[in-house]
């Protein structure tokens, strides 16, 4: 029985695509590793664990959180970029790991766009301006006036050079024409302790990292660097409400897989992540952290991702922050 040329080509094409189809149909056949490129215990880690737990129930395989901290999130992110592109290793990244590191590290070891495929944009950590309780500034206008009276005297803390809290404050200083002295820390915990202790004047920190202290009255919040007020902190006005525009600085977060992962597997993972976040119990747990949910599917997230990279690349250049 002879084969026509068209039939032969069809069989050849089927043979080429068959392995990926089989892999997709059998996926997942073993546990999935969800890399969090930061230490355990923070809000990023908490969100990843909420989603991992729900995904484990829905896909029939354990999704195990793997904390791989170091180099501003580059260590864990790099490991995923160069790992097997089979869907069994994904990463929960953010504007630092999949954006600013491209311009703040001399050799990040990966390309945030070319090496990754987005699975789901989750939303953002809003930044809150918080001050020590005895700082004589109750509003953003009073803070600006205080800073202009003695340029450089006020100090501000951040979670590290090039971190979201550092760059958000650089943006604010550019927009208001003030100058303050930068004091970087290794993470949010020591920064929060220094503000509570009255040794740091101000910080533009992510809301989840300071919400508990704001509610407890151990520090004061002046503003949110976000377009709208947060439902979990309704009494904190935005910068826009206080006359400062173009200084919003949300720190977004998203799930990614290696770019070469087969499309059917990417689709399956994307749907599983979005379904997990949509569960009412998971949604409520994430919102309680002070995180703002804005779920974006891969097609919607890609242009947003590119625009964010372009925006912060310019801010980094204007601030004169050099790669390390």
From TrEMBL:
InterPro entries for the chain: BUG, Bug_dom1
Protein name per the record: Tripartite-type tricarboxylate transporter receptor subunit TctC
Family: Belongs to the UPF0065 (bug) family.
Signal peptide boundaries: 1-24
Domain of life the protein comes from: Bacteria
Record keywords, A-Z: Receptor, Signal
Organism: Bosea psychrotolerans
């Amino acid at each position: 029985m002879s084969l026509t040329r068209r039939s032969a080509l069809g069989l050849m094409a089927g043979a080429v695509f068959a392995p990926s189809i089989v892999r997709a149909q059998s996926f997942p056949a073993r546990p999935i590793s969800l890399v969090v490129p930061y230490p355990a215990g923070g809000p990023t880690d908490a969100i990843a664990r909420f989603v991992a737990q729900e995904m484990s129930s829905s896909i029939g395989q354990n999704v195990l959180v793997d904390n791989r901290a170091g180099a501003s999130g580059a260590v864990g992110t790099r490991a995923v970029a160069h790992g097997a592109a089979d869907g069994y290793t994904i990463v929960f990244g953010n504007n630092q790991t999949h954006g600013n590191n491209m311009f703040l590290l001399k050799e990040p070891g990966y390309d945030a766009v070319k090496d990754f495929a987005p699975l789901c944009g989750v939303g953002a950590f809003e930044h809150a301006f918080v001050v020590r309780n005895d700082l004589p500034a109750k509003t953003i206008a009073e803070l600006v006036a205080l800073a202009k009276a003695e340029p450089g005297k006020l100090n501000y803390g951040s979670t590290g050079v090039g971190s979201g809290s550092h760059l958000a404050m650089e943006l604010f200083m550019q927009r208001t024409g003030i100058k303050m002295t930068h004091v970087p820390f290794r993470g949010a915990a020591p920064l929060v302790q220094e503000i509570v202790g009255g040794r740091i004047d101000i910080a533009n920190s992510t809301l989840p990292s300071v919400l508990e202290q704001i509610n407890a009255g151990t520090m004061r919040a002046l503003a949110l660097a976000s377009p709208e007020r947060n439902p979990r902190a309704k009494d904190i006005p935005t910068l826009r409400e206080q006359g400062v525009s173009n200084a919003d600085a949300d720190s977004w977060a998203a799930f990614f897989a290696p770019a070469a992962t087969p499309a059917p597997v990417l689709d399956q993972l994307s749907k599983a992540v979005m379904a997990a976040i949509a569960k009412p119990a998971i949604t409520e747990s994430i919102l309680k952290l002070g995180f703002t949910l804005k779920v974006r599917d891969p097609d919607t997230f890609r242009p947003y991702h590119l625009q964010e990279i372009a925006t912060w690349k310019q801010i980094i250049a204007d601030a004169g922050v050099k790669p390390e």
